[in-house]
Amino acid sequence: MKLWQGNEACVEGAIAAGARFYAGYPITPSTEIAEIASRRLPPQGGKFIQMEDEIGGIAAMIGASVGGAKAFTATSGPGFSLMQENLGYAAMAEIPCVLVNVQRMGPSTGVATAPAQGDVMQARWGTHGDHPAIVLCPSSVEEVYYLTIEAFNLSEMLRQPVILLMDEVVGHMRENIAEPDRTKIRVIDRSKPEPDQLYLPYAEDSDVSPFAPFGEGYAYNITGLAHDEKGFPTNDGEVVRRLLDRLHQKIENNLSELPGIEEAEAADADLVILCYGCTARPAREAVRLARDSGLSVGYVRLRTLWPFPYERIAALADKKSILVPEMNMGQIIGEVERAVKGKTEVVGLWRYDGELFNPEEILKKIREVI
Amino acid sequence: MRTIEKMQIPAENVAIVSGIGCSSRAAGYLNFQTLHTTHGRALAFATGLKMVRPELTIFVLMGDGDSTAIGGNHFIHTARRNIDVNAIIFNNQIYGMTGGQASPLTPQGKKGSTAPFGCTERNFDIMKLAMGAGATFAARSTTYHLKLLDKMIEEGVNNKGFSIVEAMTYCPTGFGRQNKSGSAAAMLNWYKDHAVPVEKAAVSDAKTVKERITIGIHHQEQEAEFVSEYEKIIESQRQKSGGSS
Ligand SMILES: Cc1ncc(C[n+]2csc(CCOP(=O)(O)OP(=O)(O)O)c2C)c(N)n1
């Protein structure tokens, strides 16, 4: 057994996934990730740098990934906003990297130490332009460890920045977890080009091209400008459209690789609670309390927020109602409504006072709705 | 390019990183590993790359706005760290790509499209900025003094630490027209007539120095290089943990 804090599990997961570079800027409640990374990376031959701001943090992370290292950074709301431009760069230039956002209350500096889930939409739409996003959301310390590994795997496999959207509760909570069995962990590395073949870093005939690190003899161009198969800038509308289509398709074609949903007692339930992150525990407890008092309630938890699992959630339209508790003023609920298209009742329960839900208030809402 | 050839650095050991601007587009025209990044951030990208690939000789190409306005923070911190990358700043004293707005290097009093009555703000002196921030090599030349420019770049590469070479270029459309500087050739000639070697400038009186451009090596010192120092830490930490993870 190991007693880990969520932020510590994140660093340990990153190291297990092969991460050897961290660049970032301290911000509560993510700071422990930087502190632990600064201690844990050097003995692994890895490197850590505290940059002058979050913009530099994400830029150095991308630079390190271009050099071939698995790299990550961590931040919270205000810093996440500063990272948005280069997050789009990584999506456009297809640079694998993992960005951890341990959410705190906003907007602005908000309440630095209070939990919230206010960055769900920023994680999807924060950077400019039409770009794909992969956002994973753990709800326990153990899951932080495994989803961090999955974040790196997806990022390497798809040449795509992946966001691990944690929250203050999950980041700071301490839990005993079973010693991870490193031999059973799946670790995926980016594929490299075959030597002696013409290297197209952005080939159109496959979803994802191999990624040649700088320093291994491939002379080519990486840019955030719209580019052709060789990586050179282009204004040709047809080429640009095909590029954007491919960026989205590479993820659409690999949805089965994304962490799926967790559910309990949902199959026969009249009402399901749909939740994610730190709201999962009180929600789970509310289901138990509801079942104890004879109510037909189940639970569905998202582990991947984006791409949103529309099809799977559409299947919940056979329920009488869906209750969506969130630590914000209603963000993911809009996607649930889009998925069920008015075929069933969708009810939100929101908290934005920096306090975690307690099971009784969720139960109270269940009684109102059912 | 001439410097890379002359110094016989193998092409696969060269990486070019650039920001956003006319000057930064140069990266896309060079047959090396080229990383064209975001406006102002080239040095931060280069920092990550250099840390994981210390064997690379990295050139960072930036404009004056790119390096000292939006990228000013990265500029001073990269200098402070003394990481072994070679920054080449194309100083045309204006925002070229976006069409002639004033930059932090537009001389006070000169016009830009956003400074129609002349720039009220004082301009930076990149050499002083570099020195103040701790760069271990800072030199300036102009596009008229190409031999010197090559030499400065070469000396910069030889410096194990952060090197800055400021290349005074010109933008006849963005800067020249608004300031009646004349043709490209006239602007080039201006550099010919107004540049003095920095060693000589040191002994001239302050007034004449102000109206001139000093060229040559403005500062050079030896300091420990960031990545090499970090690698010593890795070595000692690895020994402590017995090489295992
Ligand atoms: C975040 C951001 N802000 C603004 C711009 C627009 N922009 C592109 S180049 C540039 C200025 C370039 O001037 P300089 O760095 O002096 O280079 P030059 O074009 O003169 O070589 C600006 C403001 C941008 N691309 N990104």
UniProtKB/TrEMBL annotation, chain A:
Please list the GO terms describing molecular function.
Answer: oxidoreductase activity
Q: Where is the signal peptide?
A: none
Quick one: a GO biological-process term for this protein?
A: response to oxidative stress
Q: Where is the Pyruvate flavodoxin/ferredoxin oxidoreductase pyrimidine binding domain?
A: 12-237
UniProt keywords, alphabetically: Oxidoreductase, Pyruvate
Pfam families in alphabetical order: PFOR_II (PF17147), POR_N (PF01855)
Keyword Oxidoreductase annotated: yes
The record, for CDD domains, names: TPP_PYR_PFOR_IOR-alpha_like
Q: Is Transmembrane helix one of the keywords? A: no
Q: Which InterPro entries match?
A: PFOR_II, Pyruvate:ferred/Flavod_OxRd, Pyrv_Fd/Flavodoxin_OxRdtase_N, THDP-binding, Transketo_C/PFOR_II
Q: Which domain of life is it from?
A: Bacteria
Q: Identify the residues that the record assigns to the Pyruvate:ferredoxin oxidoreductase core domain, covering every copy.
A: 269-362
Task: Output the PANTHER family linked to this UniProt entry.
Answer: 2-OXOGLUTARATE SYNTHASE SUBUNIT KORA, PYRUVATE-FLAVODOXIN OXIDOREDUCTASE-RELATED
- Protein name (record): Pyruvate flavodoxin/ferredoxin oxidoreductase domain protein
Q: What is the lineage of its organism?
A: Bacteria, Bacillati, Bacillota, Dethiobacteria, Dethiobacterales
UniProtKB/TrEMBL annotation, chain B:
GO term, biological process aspect, one: cellular respiration
- Please give one Pfam family short name: TPP_enzyme_C
Q: Which InterPro entries match?
A: 2-oxoacid:Fd_oxidoreductase, THDP-binding, TPP_enzyme_TPP-bd
Q: Coiled-coil annotation: which residues?
A: none
State one molecular function term (GO): oxidoreductase activity, acting on the aldehyde or oxo group of donors, iron-sulfur protein as acceptor
UniProt xrefs under CDD domains: TPP_OGFOR
Per UniProt, which keywords does this protein have? Oxidoreductase
Domain annotation Thiamine pyrophosphate enzyme TPP-binding: ranges: 20-166
Q: Does the keyword Transmembrane helix apply?
A: no
Name the UniProt record assigns to this protein: Thiamine pyrophosphate protein domain protein TPP-binding
